[in-house]
Predict the structure.
Amino acid sequence: MTDQCEGAISPPVSEPELLKQTSSSKPKESLSSSLPISQQSSSLGRFISFEGTEGVGKTTAISSLCERLEEAGIDYIRTREPGGSDFAEQLRALLLNPQTSIHDDTELLLMFAARCDHLHERILPALAANKWVICDRFIDSTVAYQGFGRAHGDPKVLDKINQLIAGFVPRLPDTTIWLDLPVYEGMRRAGKRSQADRFEQEALDFFTRVHQGFVHQATEHPNRILQIDASGNSEEVALRIWQSLSVDL
Ligand code: T5A
């Protein structure tokens, strides 16, 4: 996961720092009048997740959005899944370790165990404090990766996932930004990095199914999930996201 924002001067953020990263808590009154998001919505905590296949540019786009939120004086936390809380980050390390060998059901349950801790330790408290939560991946990744990538869209597995969501996820994102890009293009972008994690080692057909999973989710939840064209440079993508959020919020 990269933390550097193309086109903006922002130093790389280490993973522990990323976990703690919040906005500079500027007062709400400094909200610019040119901000496309209404002033009314800025006073409420918003939960925005980012989704997509490998390397589509979520981390980069989140950095751009966070810069805009800071400029607008909106208080936010930036987080990610799997991970985002101390315990969930320990599970992340196990889940992404190429040496880890586990049953698909174990992987699914660990994703939810991590999510449960993340929700109760970070997401829900932040929302209760009227902060915005910007989260790199959430439930739709589980449907896409475990439901479609691993289980080929098996309705029984999708049903299990939906039951876990209903039972253990008390708050869904208000808006999900799905960065849509041909799978091979995302892999090309991500492939510039040296070491592949446990998921990145999967073959192209796995990620093709993952992409189908995001298509499935966008079809099932058209009001929550905004499909954003992730092609073009990072500034173009950031602008599309900002304009979509201004319409949606
Ligand atoms: N997972 C996760 C599950 O299986 N189930 C679940 O329930 C959950 C929550 C997480 C893994 O866990 C799996 C899915 C994942 O495999 P991760 O490290 O968070 O692992 O992996 P990714 O989310 O895929 O993160 P990546 O860093 O690989 O991809 P990003 O964040 O989408 O992309 P980003 O911004 O790092 O960009 C990748 C490269 O492209 C460049 C960047 O500079 C960077 O080099 N780039 C662009 N290049 C050209 N044009 C643009 N517009 C660009 N935007 C970025």
